[in-house]
Design a protein that fits this description.
The chain has one helix at 79-90, and strands at 14-18, 27-29, 33-46, 58-72, 94-99, 109-123, 131-138, 143-144, 147-148, 154-157. By secondary structure, it is mainly β.
Length: 159
Amino acid sequence: MAFDSTVKFGHECKVYNNTGTHASPTWNELNIVKDVTLNMSQNESDISSRAGKGYVMTAGTLIDASIDFSVTWDPADSADFSELQNAFFDRKPVELLILDGDRTDAGNEGLQAFFVVTNFTRNESIAEAVSADITCKITKNPRESGSEITDVPNWVVTS
């Protein structure tokens, strides 16, 4: 009897960069990434009242999301590396899609948003290949064709 596992493994997850426009995306898999962490948390608002009978009551407010990942430092061999590095130095947003599987397979999910690269740290461990730790945080959506993009950030499920 064969069993199919529903467990997701890190190597199955994908990070995509939109190299086209938002209206007509060209999703390019960033296969240079190593370990990826999608950080998501909600800010909190104290909504305590006497109705709480002595307990603190909290409401979730804004969602804070960022992505951390590392890449091998190889600017001469990767357009993806150069694009991320240029996004950092030029302070330009990049549209990323962080999924728990391939975007062409139905049922995979993750975050799509415009991000600004806020950290581009070079690591020079004596016994390892030089690498970069990169942090991307959600930023204001840019304008495209004269109008502000309004449908992202968004949690997406592929169909």
